[in-house]
Amino acid sequence: MNPEKETTMNIAALHHTTSRSLAGTMTFPQVVGLLLGEGVESYQADLVTREKTFHMPNGETHRETLDIQPLAIAADFSGPEVVSAIRDIQQQKINYRQFLDRIAAAGTTTYTVYLQGKRAIYFGRNGDFHIEEFPKAN
Fold first, then answer.
1. Burial 46-79 (b: 16+ CB within 10 A, else e)
2. Entry pTM
3. DSSP bridge pairs for 111
4. At residue 54, what are phi and psi to the nearest 5 degrees?
5. Which of 5, 11, 24, 129 is least buried, going by the fewest C-beta atoms within 10 A?
């Protein structure tokens, strides 16, 4: 028997973060706090399939559908445009749906958020990427 506690994903909490983010009623720092509290290790948003997959340290996963229209993903990746969208959502100038539109227009196909590592990596069609460290708390 494994002495480590097996983690069971709280599907309702994961759905909550996805739906409230899309509704504009939950910020990224709130999402991170809730997911860390649930033991989530990372999540990946696939803008092509419009799905978000959550990963636990024990290998358990859960997939949520992003209830959005298909995104117009640019062929070329623009790191500066991704950064611009990140800064605007951090400053609450745009909401999460607008953020997804902007990073897709900047060529992002997927992004992965590493909660313990405190970074997100945005990927383009040809392997281009941008690594964004979480902002330092004030």
1. bbeebebbbbbeeeeebebebeeeebebbeebbb
2. 0.91
3. 45, 122
4. -100, 140
5. 5
First to last CA, the chain: 43
Tokens 């028997």, residue?
1
Residue 49 token pair: 């399939």
Contact 63, 51 (CB under 8 A): yes
The answer to whether the beta carbons of residues 14 and 40 sit under 8 Å apart is yes
DSSP collapsed to 3 states, the chain: CCCCCCCCCCHHHHHHHHHHHHHCCCCHHHHHHHHHHCCCCEEEEECCCCEEEEECCCCCEEEEECCCCCCCCCCCCCHHHHHHHHHHHHCCCCCHHHHHHHHHHCCEEEEEEECCCCEEEEEECCCCEEEEECCCCC
